[in-house]
Design goal:
This protein has 344 residues and is an alpha/beta fold. The chain is built from 4 helices and 39 strands. The longest helix has 20 residues.
Length: 344
């Protein structure tokens, strides 16, 4: 797609300083800008690059005054970073404005859908699926029977949504993610042989949930595994059966949450965190990367370590962790001295 400086300025309510007809077809970092690219300047430490960039168009704040000659055409706006983000969002929407059913693909006769459906080649939509407006199912994605997809849901290539899953409006499920797979439920018999417990529940994703690539969300044994409105999951996360995650909680990559754990609203959970099952984590909790959570957590706590400690206690203790060899040597010296004194 090609946009001129004049068109971009119109979208951003900005002012063109330079050639309004110059066109761009890609975006770039300001230090890597080349002809045909669009970039932006928001952080003052990158200002020197605006005099060397070959980008055709650069978005800047209105108060920017160049001190040297420029090659790039400027678009002046109130907030360069916000405007660039807005433009990227617009570009992404235009780029993904796909409509129609490609072939070969399978759409069950019993499935229903709203306006502007897109199904890529080799995608599959099963029986009794209900889809809203603007649903996009990319190639090789799978939607099982009785699934409900809200408006503007996007399933990227290779995403799998198992039967009975309910997905709200404006949700995104990235490539390789699996939503609704069986929970890890097995029970040993008297001989110690593990037998599978049927997983008869489902998964519910409320509105505005993002599921990262390679992430797995297991269906409930009974009832539902629930991700509330605005939850954002990074790549390669494991959410076990009957977990519930509160509104607007954000979880980084490679975190694992065991069955029936309940996580509150607006929590920030770092990468590679492990959370045991059947515990309750409060609202506004922050958990640092690689922490292990094995107990209930109150609202607002900040934790680090494995097992996790209060963040301040962990930092104080870490000073002693680093000095532990010196402390042990000192204790050994004192022990030797004490032994010698007692033997004299």
């Amino acid at each position: 797609m090609i946009f001129t400086a004049g068109q971009i300025a119109g979208l951003l309510e900005g002012e063109v300083d330079g050639n309004p007809e110059i066109a761009v077809h890609k975006v770039a970092k300001i230090e890597e800008g080349e002809t045909g690219s669009l970039t932006f300047l928001a952080n003052p430490k990158y200002t020197p690059y605006i005099y060397t960039t070959r980008a055709s168009i650069t978005i800047v704040n209105k108060d920017f005054v160049p001190e040297q000659d420029l090659v790039t055409t400027l678009i002046k706006v109130d907030d360069a970073y916000e405007s660039f983000s807005k433009l990227l969002e617009y570009y992404d929407k235009v780029k993904s404005a796909k409509v129609g059913v490609e072939h070969p693909s399978y759409l069950s006769e019993s499935a229903t859908h709203g306006d502007n459906l897109y199904m890529g080649a080799f995608s599959y939509v099963g029986e009794n699926v209900v889809m809203g407006n603007g649903v996009k199912i990319y190639p090789n994605a799978y939607v099982g029977e009785n699934v409900k997809l809200g408006d503007n849901v996007t399933l990227f290539s290779g995403a799998k949504v198992y039967s009975d899953t309910i997905v709200g409006n404006n949700c995104v499920i990235h490539s390789g993610a699996i939503v609704g797979s069986d929970g890890f439920g097995f029970a040993p018999d008297k001989n110690g042989i593990f037998n599978k417990i049927p997983q008869t529940g489902n998964v519910i994703l409320e509105d505005d949930v993002d599921v990262g690539a390679g992430t797995t969300i297991d269906r409930a044994t009974l009832g539902s595994t629930i991700l509330r409105k605005g939850v954002k999951l990074d790549n390669q996360i494991q959410i076990a059966h009957n977990v519930e995650i509160g509104e607007h909680t954000v979880i980084a990559a490679q975190t694992g949450i065991a069955g029936s754990a309940k996580i509150g609203k607006r929590c920030l959970i770092g990468g590679q965190v492990g959370i045991v099952g059947h515990i309750v984590i409060g609202d506004d909790v922050r958990i640092q990367a690689q922490s292990g959570i094995g107990r209930n957590i109150k609202d607002g706590e900040i934790l680090q370590g494995s097992p996790a400690l209060a963040y301040g206690d962990y930092n104080k203790s870490y000073v002693h962790f680093k000095n532990l060899p010196k402390i042990v040597n000192r204790i050994n010296e004192l022990d030797k001295k004490y032994t010698l004194d007692n033997n004299e």
